[in-house]
Amino acid sequence: MGKAKAKEALGLSAIPEGASRPAKRRPEVVLITGLCGGLSGSLSETQIVTYTDCLSTEPDKPPLRCSPSVTDRLLDLLSSHGISCDPVTGITSPRVAVTKEDRLALARSGAGVVDMESYEILAVAAEAGIPGAVLRVVSDSLETEMLDFNRALKPDGTVDQWQLFRLVLGSPIRMVRLLAASKRAMQEFAKALEVVLPSDCFAPATPMENDRSGSL
Question: Is the dihedral of CA 23, 29, 30, 32 positive or negative?
Fold first, then answer.
């Protein structure tokens, strides 16, 4: 996800001259959820994590800090319900970390997990002064044998459906295992979301907290 898509998702995209912005509330907090890949042997499949900060594989992009207040509330809330959640540094990569060597290379940045979209969303939120937090679940661990999904990615980040079909057709058993692992992870994640989403842990942050949720 690039910045343009992130702005559109948050209702912050530019409005053409002469057009009126649709009636839509500005977000008070941005919570990014989904799957991620583990970069450490200590993070097993189905482990829930929340980011303290997020890195990018692009060297010119600075680290971004997630909202400390929202992150702390997430950790306390889940802990009070007996749900384990680890604070980690995440890293966003435009490519899938296929091999263990790929994952270890990303881990050298200091990151514990990898995803493909958090950084750009957090960057847009920080520019708009909106606190951002990330809550994810590990669907594939350091030792997971992945398919090379990069072969199905087009230059613009969209998926070539034919190439994806060929990948799946060539390794059906591995694909079934990956899907089963994702299903197990989402089942665990659903328990956390049932606790988090109805809660009041997304109360607006103070201006000082907004300042702290930008670049490190």
Answer: negative
